[in-house]
Amino acid sequence: MNIFVILKQTFDTEEKIVVHGGEISEDGVKFIINPYDEYAIEEAIRLKELHGGQVTVVSVGPPRAAEALRTALAMGADEAVLIADGRIPADEYSLSVVLAAYLSKVSADVVLGGNFSVDQGSGQVAVRLARLLALPHVSSITKLDIADGKAQVLRDAEGDAETIEAALPALFTAQQGLNEPRYPSLPGIMKAKKKPFQQLGLNELGLSEADIAPRTERVSLSLPPQRKAGRILHGELKDQAAELVSLLRTEAKVI
Amino acid sequence: MSKHYVVIAEVRGGQLRQVSLEAIEAAQLAANEGDTVSSLLLGHNLSEQASQLSRYVPGQVHVLDHPDLEHYLAERYCSAILPVLESLEPYTIVLGHTAMGRDLAPMLAAHFRAGQISDVTAIHRNCSELLFTRPIYAGKAFEQKRFIEGPQIITVRPNNISLAAETGASAELIQHAYSAPADLKTIINDVITKTSGRVDLAEAQIVVSGGRGVKSAEGFKPLEQLAEVLGGAVGASRGACDAGYCDYALQIGQTGKVVTPQVYIACGISGAIQHLAGMSQSRIIIAINKDPEAPIFKIADYGIVGDLFEVVPLLTEQFRKALT
User: Closest chain A residue to B261 measured between Cα atoms?
Assistant: First the structure.
């Protein structure tokens, strides 16, 4: 089974956001594999362990994203592809066209990605990619079983569980609960250093800047207003409960 | 030149979703004078919901009503929608940022080679240009985006844009024929509605949320009772989900859902940065925690230091008295 995982490197979810000179500062930030993409990698490795085959991890991003791909190799992926080119805009249309240019040249049985990224959070790229590749897709899956060229999946739809069958090749996006991602083992980390690692740019993919012209752009950034600590109530718990209800009614006017 | 805005409305559990009315408002905010705002509704047995929708839509209401469309399935919905959209030639398509909208919008965006701005919380006009505000890093920051060129697709986050007002008239209803696509690659076999009869977490006006301090699945009972009295929804922190106290569908945070209710009641939640990202845009935050040093108190409007198993039932009792 030929499995491809698209992944993104993101800020650790415990990082605070600092805006410096109109940009989000990356100073001293710890980077991780986007948590939802990590489920996708784990699922791909499990599929390979069950059915045999090969797992290739692919990322579009700056050179630092190589570290996330190496982590995926250390978890058990076989090959990595980093598409790094300063001309690729941070627009979901552009990103999906870049990934489609790469994936249309390979023959994938299964493509996996995260449900969304914890940084931009727009949840577009994987689904756009499925459409560009003319692959069926199921997003936000919490279970994946493959047999006889078909996938049986559970899709989380705002808490409802849908059982869906999809003919392969197909694309799936991972939701929390799909699996428990493994940590890279020490031998895994050693082996990862010898695994194939390809770096590509627009030229190698046969794309021009016009092919990936962005459809949207960021105009400005802002931080949410700081919340101030409010009031800690005092007294008997029963009286505090009564006071809170009365404050919500008279002061906050929300009930 | 006048442009056509099409809002893809949604029915869940037999009800027209509130976010669909917010999406209509978003379309009207974005539209210029002379533009048309229409809506498209898909599902089965839609007569009531379609006539409800028609009271809010200034243009026409297009309806695709067929047993095959009872449940959302990406491939089926997309193939049903595309012929209608191609005939309407919309400049902008607006959807709710829901399970359906999140999935359907990027498919349409790829099909039309369109830009998409997801999860929009506000729309502003700067001179003649439209700016769309959306959270990034789950709300730790916000970005303002614009479309460079059309066509445009927008998804709006529930609970942020106000509801469209009734137009005072009834929009024309136009039924479209649905023909089952040949050669479907996906089939939906079963739907287990775990959340039926409950308030949807993303759209809830009041959220009662539990953390590790809830200690067990059983420990969520008092929180559920409080949510019920308030007509709200129950949520949870990653700690509570990882510990197996509740389903991941309830998780609020940078991984999980971002909620912006009127009132957020955090019970036994310490307030890790990744959790705060998912709820700190709530209007009023109430924290209940045994530990007076818990970081959650630094962002809470009101705090009660105490055991949630004592405090929550007392609150339920007080709210019950106050609300009846």
Answer: A254
Chain A positions in Cβ-Cβ contact with residue B136 (cut-off 8 Å):
119-121
Q: Do the domain assignments include residue B183? A: no
- Report the chain A residue with the minimal C-alpha distance to residue B111: A131
Look at residues B157, B175, B193 and tell me which one is the last residue of a structural domain. B175
User: How many of the other CB atoms lie within 10 Å of CB of B244?
Assistant: 9
Q: For residue A148, which amino acid is it?
A: D
Work out the minimum CA distance from B165 to partner chain A, whole angstroms.
Answer: 22
Chain B from 104 to 123: CB within 8 A of any A CB: 105-107, 109-111, 113-119
Q: In terms of residue numbers, what domain contains B80?
A: 4-175
**ipTM of the complex model:** 0.95
Q: What is the pLDDT of residues B60-117, one digit of tens each?
A: 999 999 999 999 999 999 999 999 999 999 999 999 999 999 999 999 999 999 999 9
With 90 as the cut, is the pLDDT of residue A229 above it? no
pLDDT tens digit sequence for A115-146: 999 999 999 999 999 999 999 999 999 999 99
On whether both B217 and B292 belong to a single domain, the answer is yes
pTM, entire model: 0.94
Which string of DSSP letters, residue by residue, matches A133-155? TT--EEEEEEEEEEETTEEEEEE
Which residue of chain A is at minimal alpha-carbon distance from B140?
A17
What backbone phi and psi angles, to 5 degrees, belong to B55? Answer: -75, -15
Amino acid A110 reads V
Report CB contact under 8 Å: B322, A255: yes
Question: Can you tell me the mean pLDDT for B18-31?
Answer: 97
CATH 3.90.226.10 fits A2-212, yes or no: no
Chain A interface includes B311 (CB < 8 A)? yes
Inspect the interface and report whether the beta carbons of A252 and B301 lie closer than 8 Å: yes
Residue B36 belongs to a domain: yes
* Residues in A touching B277 (Cβ below 8 Å): 13
What are the structure tokens assigned to B19, written together?
A: 């976010």
Q: What is the average pLDDT score of chain A?
A: 96
Residue B126 included in any domain? yes
* CATH number where B224 lies: 3.40.50.1220
- Asked if residue B55 and residue B115 are part of one domain, the reply reads yes
Q: Is B242 on the interface with A (CB under 8 A)?
A: no
3-state SS record for B61-127: EEEEECHHHCCCCHHHHHHHHHHHHHHHCCCEEEEECCHHHHHHHHHHHHHCCCEEEEEECEEEEEC
